[in-house]
Amino acid sequence: MLNRYPLWKYLLILVVCVVGIVYALPNLYPQDPAVQISSTNGSLDSQQLDRIQQALSSDDIAVKSARMTGNTTALIRLDDAEQQLPARDVIDDMLGDNYTVALNLADSTPAWLTSLSAAPMKLGLDLRGGVHFLLEVDMDAAVQQRLDATASAIRADLRDQRIRYRGTQIDDNTLHVEFANAEDRAAARDQISQTYSEFQLADHDEGRRAFLDMTLTEQSIKDIQDYAIKQNLTTIRNRVNELGVSEPLVQRQGPNRIVVELPGVQDTAEAKRIVGATANLEFRLEARPDAPDSETETFPFRNDSTRSATLSRDVIITGDRVSSASQGFDQNGQPQVNINLDGTGGSLMNQATRANIGRNMAVLYIEHNSHVETVMQDGKQVEKRIPETTRSVISLATIQSALSNRFRITGLDSPTEASELALLLRSGSLAAPIYFVQERTIGPSLGAQNIQRGIFSVIVGGLLVVAFMLIRYKAFGVIANVALAVNLVLLVAAMSLLGATLTLPGIAGIVLTLGMAVDANVLIYERIREELRRHTPAQQAVHAGYGRAFTSIVDANLTTLLVAVVLFSIGTGPVKGFAVTLSLGILTSMFTGIMVSRALVNLSIGGKPVKKLWI
Fold first, then answer.
1. Cβ contact 168:177 at 8 Å
2. 511 and 582 in contact (C-beta within 8 Å)?
3. Which H or E run includes 461?
4. What is residue 27's DSSP assignment?
5. Alpha helices by DSSP H, 45-110
6. If 0-12 CB within 10 Å is exposed, 13-18 middle and 19+ buried, where does residue 33 land?
7. 493 pLDDT band (50/70/90 cuts)?
8. Residue limits of the Protein export membrane protein SecD/SecF C-terminal domain (predicted)?
9. Which of 34, 493, 565, 608 has its CB 3.0 to 4.6 Å from that of 106, i.e. a possible disulfide?
10. In 3-state terms, what secondary structure has residue 552?
């Protein structure tokens, strides 16, 4: 019998529609602006939470709800996102340094939907608001750091091989190693050429002084710089993950720049401090009294500039050997950072401390900054970035026994400093310093305006399509519009299930999808009209219209889908958001335009004597 579906097809369409409605529902429950409180000393209870609510109310900050989410954590929901920062300031002043107060967005999805793993779509930077950073990687510093590390390693290797040397010096991209005579230089050259293949080696003499010049090749410099930006990308992603930002964007732009977008972040100072922090650690032994000046360096203490320590230039390990780090307190209640090293770091630390029990070991804190100066260049005033590197000792302690891969750092000023240092060590050290080139802040009000305009555009576009289909195809236009509504629900559900981020280009993709979704119905209905003009019976005309238009519908949608795939593969940021929405919309529109609308037509006229079609 014409125009009848088997029962399983109706059930399949029903199941898909019900699932789509369930997973699209969470988008009707927007996230609440909230402030999250966590205690670092384990003292947070409901009485304190009540006092916090009273303090917020006295400052005219409307609290939607407040509850304990754990033994030492609480979540306060607010009515207005504009009140998050004032609320955090009030709570900070009230609680002090022993508590961490962070801005957050709390889900308001009902529990029964959450139990089904249903969640709303994430909003992008242009909708939720947040910060946009453009960072520049100091490529020259990356090469300099590699040369410093190589010089330290070569000094250690030469001592192990009992080859005498006088010192090392770095000049541009060349490392100069000085020897007492040509024989020692020849022995060192044989050793170095086997290990450091990225250098070009050359001998030169200055009087009785014998030098071995190690110059980085052009390819080696490119490899170092490429590694630096890739490592920085990884490190910054780890830091952003530590901040707990949902759907962040961290990607490379050009040869030496990184774009960071943090949707929902309002505390730009905190984000900038964590993302752009260039601190790293070095563990060094205190220099022996008889050590030559060429092998020692003197640094001030970070918390007491009147004190200083003279350290060996050789580095035991750096912060990139840290596998995990956490904040804690010592027996005197002072902040500390508990550190775990990786396998190589643990071996190096054990080897160095086992042979130097009784000597002091220092933790050197290294921070890279910069300032901009206006200088004359080719007769014009240009801004030039001047890098600055600050090194200071944060801990100097006697080695009591051989250390392994677990130990602690003390001598920190506050729990906040310990927490930030632990975060930086956990996320990894930067391979080269980074500098902020551009910073933009998008407020929540602008995001709300974008959302309103986006929703308005979807409504207007949808209403125009609905009106056209009703006027053009009458009763069949109603069926097409029902299928269009189902298509929109399924599209939203698919984006929510996949965890896609909704942006303004994504909304543009939804509007385009609404326009394209009825293409299939237009092709089918025009084919039915053509059959009716040939005086084909109504049931046969409907059957032929759906059957003969199928190939054209698939061809048209496949070509558009290929374009969307290409956009996603080569595009970035907004282009990808548009491509994702368009791809999902094509798939859902094919399902609704062919199967759902056919099912509605079959249920309406299938198997019934029909003399005239309202089309």
1. yes
2. no
3. helix 444-498
4. G
5. 46-58, 84-95
6. buried
7. very high
8. 437-601
9. 34
10. helix
Give Cα 195 to chain centroid, integer Å.
Answer: 36
In CATH, 32-106 is 3.40.50.2300: no
Residue 137, strand partner residues: 434
Kindly report, residue by residue over 31-44, the tens digit of the pLDDT. Answer: 888 888 877 665 77
CA–CA separation, 53 and 393 (whole Å): 42
Distance CA 527, CA 531 (A): 6
CA–centroid distance for 75 within its chain = 24
- In tens, the pLDDT along 386-439 reads 767 788 888 788 888 888 788 777 766 677 777 777 776 666 667 778 888 887
Structure-block tokens of residue 373: 């100066």
CATH number at 277-440: 3.30.1360.200
H or E segment at 272?
helix 268-275
What is the separation of C-alpha 457 from the centre of its chain, rounded to a whole number of angstroms?
Answer: 30
pLDDT tens digit sequence for 429-453? 677 788 888 877 766 556 667 778 8
Q: State the residue for tokens 């002043």.
A: 93
The DSSP string of 140-168 is HHHHHHHHHHHHHHHHHHHHHTT----EE
Quote the strand ranges of 242-285, DSSP E. Answer: 249-253, 257-263, 280-285
Q: What's the CA gap between 181 and 188, in Å, rounded?
A: 11
How many residues belong to the chain? 615
Tell me the domain boundaries of the chain: 7-26+443-605, 32-106, 139-220, 277-440
CA dihedral sign of residues 21, 24, 29, 34: positive
Helix (H, G, I), strand (E, B) or coil at 188: helix
Query: Coil, strand or helix: which one is 257?
Result: strand
- Give, to the nearest 10 degrees, the angle between helix 538-570 and helix 597-605: 170
CA pair distance 406, 385, nearest whole angstrom: 39
> In whole angstroms, what is the distance from residue 282 CA to residue 312 CA?
11
Which residue type, as a one-letter code, is found at position 205?
D
Give the tens place of pLDDT for each residue, 101-148: 777 778 888 889 988 888 888 777 777 777 888 888 888 888 888 888
